[in-house]
Specification:
- It is a single chain.
- By secondary structure, the protein is an all-alpha fold.
- Helix content is 83%, strand content 0%.
- The chain contains 6 helices and no strands.
- α2 (28-44) packs across α5 and α5 runs antiparallel to α6.
- The longest helix has 28 residues, at 85-112.
- The radius of gyration is 16 Å and the shape is globular.
- The model has no long low-confidence stretch (mean pLDDT 88).
- This is Stage V sporulation protein AE.
- InterPro entries: Spore_V_AE (IPR014204), SpoVA (IPR005562).
Length: 118
């Protein structure tokens, strides 16, 4: 049942984003920033952690989850290191995911030989 719930929540988030892309003139990059900021704000006000616990990976994997991870890292770092934690907390908390995305993206480009669109 956890897999179905995660699939449904992740699919609903993606469907809402697709509707936003189709019905507005927002560019995909701005929508991505909007999702990260929304995840950060929802984490800051305490709404995202219960949602994440209920929805599982369906809420943790999309960009909303990335924003929440940045917020948690900044909060923990500010609590332990003070003002400098604002600058390094988010990077420390999300570095493994970012590094994984870069490494696997590079490996995929070596295997599949992407080409520019003409």
């Amino acid at each position: 049942m956890d897999y179905i719930k995660a699939f449904a929540v992740g699919g609903l988030i993606c469907a809402l984003v697709q509707i936003l892309m189709d019905k507005t003139k927002l560019m995909p990059g701005r929508i991505m920033v909007l999702l990260v900021v929304m995840g950060t704000i929802l984490g800051a006000v305490g709404l995202y952690p219960p949602f994440l616990e209920w929805a599982g990976a369906g809420a943790g994997v999309p960009l909303l989850g990335f924003g929440n991870t940045l917020w948690k890292g900044v909060k923990e770092s500010v609590d332990s290191e003070g003002f400098l934690g604002i600058f390094k907390g988010g990077l420390t908390a999300s570095s493994a995911g970012i590094c994984g995305a870069l490494v696997f993206g590079y490996l995929a480009s070596l295997i599949f030989r992407p080409k520019m669109k003409e």
